[in-house]
Design brief:
The protein has helices at residues 25-35, 63-66, 71-74, 121-130, 140-151, 156-166, 208-213, 252-257, 269-283, 299-309, 332-342, 347-350, 366-377, 415-422, 432-438, 449-452, and strands spanning 12-23, 43-50, 53-60, 78-86, 101-105, 108-118, 169-176, 181-185, 194-198, 201-205, 217-221, 226-231, 234-239, 249-250, 263-264, 267-268, 290-293, 317-319, 343-345, 354-359, 382-387, 426-429, 446-447. By secondary structure, it is of the alpha+beta class. The strands form six sheets. Strands 3-2-4-1-10-9-11 form a seven-stranded antiparallel sheet. Helix 4 (121-130) crosses helix 5 (140-151), helix 9 packs across helix 10 and helix 9 crosses helix 15 (432-438). The longest helix has 15 residues, at 269-283. It is globular and about 70 Å long.
Length: 470
């Protein structure tokens, strides 16, 4: 079924390690995935290459739960490993769709982990089925794996290069063979991917926070359109043919997806979010007593707003950190109940106060409406909402699970109408230009399709795979 919530939904997180010696590489990947848990909480998996063999384990749930009970230590020692945490943007939330995808083909045994979303999945799947391909899952990651195998002449790099010419959409891949680890980032660099090093080992991760978690040094970002092959001789960079003039990273990585201690394409996520709060304070001040953020994603911006406005930063909402993000729940009634369990107003902090509440974005409005009511019930005299992004007017088909205009309050309401619908005293959003200011210094261009409909890829022939709606 479609998920409905007041948040954009994460895609996935990927991690890989190439070691110079046989060791417990699965444990390194485990800690890397743990640091990337915010990117996907439905399933997790790790695959290990050892002695021309591959072993893997996948399960539904959080990393710590999937690999509890000694499951992690049942994986053998090896020299290469890849891992994945998933939120389903393509394919139902089922164990069979958990990653990495592990299979045997022309290039021997391979494991593929993918963050992103293809826009031509159906076309590619139909072509491969017509050529007698058999699919075990409903995810586009398996489409990528089978496509690479079908286009390979026994040389894995050639298969990847040829497959990338056919792929449309966003993809950050880690691919493991028997003797190499390969990192691939789509031509626009829509999803993040970076390289690290530790004691001669090389690592690949969706975010730098995962490198920090395993004590690795950040080397560089994987460039848009780059295929980085890691083997016993080091890192070998190959570029795809016909690259676009400008990269277009998803700007929501800075707004919401990434952990605030990560650095992406040369820009600190923390600094971008704090700058958003500063701009909101200067451009859209409010007569208020306190500033607070919707935990956790709004807190950094709220501190920036507080510093720029001179208003005190006060926690207005308490968060139960043992409840998963509300969109993970399987149906709307459970998601609504999960919100009540997850968050509560601090009555002593908000009673009689005019509150400025900072959040990263509003998708449907369901959660924000409940939060505003929660604050009013706790005694807040006024609630002024400030949002660290523009009004979301268009769906995203590039790795965020917002498939239709009906899921977006901003698609059919003005700022004034949104304010009235949510029951706020005022609401202000950043403009597109102001959002771009928050990302000054990033060594990348940005995809702004969810705000202005300008996507890197044409969506004219895009078809929502029926599996997306499972």
């Amino acid at each position: 079924m479609q998920e409905i919530d007041d948040r954009f939904h994460e895609e996935c997180g990927v991690f890989g390690v190439y070691s110079q010696e046989n060791r417990d590489v699965a444990q390194t990947v485990y800690y890397g995935l743990y640091a990337l848990q915010h990117r996907g909480q439905e399933s997790a998996g790790i695959a290990v290459s050892f002695a021309d063999k591959m072993a893997y384990y996948k399960g539904m749930g959080l990393v710590a739960d999937v690999f509890s009970g000694g499951k992690l230590f049942e994986l053998p020692e090896g020299d290469i490993a890849v891992g994945h945490v998933r939120y389903s943007t393509t394919g139902a939330s089922q164990l069979l769709n958990a990653q990495p995808v592990v299979f045997s083909g022309k290039c021997g045994k391979l494991a593929v982990a993918h963050n992103g979303n293809l826009t031509n999945t159906k076309q590619l799947r139909d072509e491969l089925i017509a050529a007698n391909a058999v699919f075990q899952t409903s995810i586009d990651s398996e489409v990528i794996a089978i496509l690479i195998n079908s286009l390979s002449d026994g040389n894995l790099l050639n298969g990847i290069k040829r497959a990338c010419l056919k792929l449309k959409g966003s993809y950050a891949l880690v691919i493991m063979s028997g003797d190499s680890l390969i990192a691939v980032r789509d031509p626009y660099g829509i999803r993040p991917l970076c390289l690290g090093e530790k004691n001669g080992d090389f690592l690949v991760a969706s975010e730098t926070c995962a490198l920090d978690a395993v004590g690795a040094n950040f080397l560089r970002d994987v460039a848009p359109g780059e295929i980085a092959v890691i083997d016993g001789d080091g890192v070998h960079s190959h570029m795809m043919d016909g690259l676009p003039e400008k990269s277009k990273m998803c700007i929501f990585e800075y707004v919401y997806f990434a952990r605030h201690d990560s650095v992406m394409d040369g820009l600190s996520v923390y600094e971008a979010r704090k700058r958003a709060g500063t701009i909101l304070a200067k451009e859209y001040p409010a007569e208020a007593d306190i500033v607070s953020g919707v935990p956790d994603s709004g807190n950094v911006a709220a501190r920036g707003y507080a510093e720029a406005s001179g208003l005190p930063f006060v926690e207005a909402l308490a968060k139960n950190r043992y409840v998963g993000r509300t969109f993970i729940q399987p149906d709307q009634s459970q998601r609504e109940n999960s919100l009540n369990l997850k968050m509560n107003a601090l009555r002593g902090n908000v009673r009689g106060k005019r509150v400025v509440l900072i959040d990263d974005s509003i998708v449907r409005g369901t959660t924000m409406r409940k939060i505003i009511k929660m604050l009013r019930d706790a005694g807040a005299s006024e609630v002024h909402i400030r949002i660290c992004s523009p009004i979301i007017k268009h769906p995203c088909h590039l790795g965020i699970d917002i498939q239709t205009y009906s899921q977006l309050i901003g698609a059919y309401k003005s700022e004034t109408q949104i304010c009235e619908s949510l029951g706020a005293d005022s609401i202000k959003y950043l403009t597109v230009d102001q959002l771009l200011q928050t990302c000054n210094g990033a060594k990348t261009g940005f995809c702004l399709g969810c705000f202005n409909g300008d996507y890197p890829y044409s969506m004219d022939n895009y078809e929502i795979d029926k599996h997306k709606l499972d």
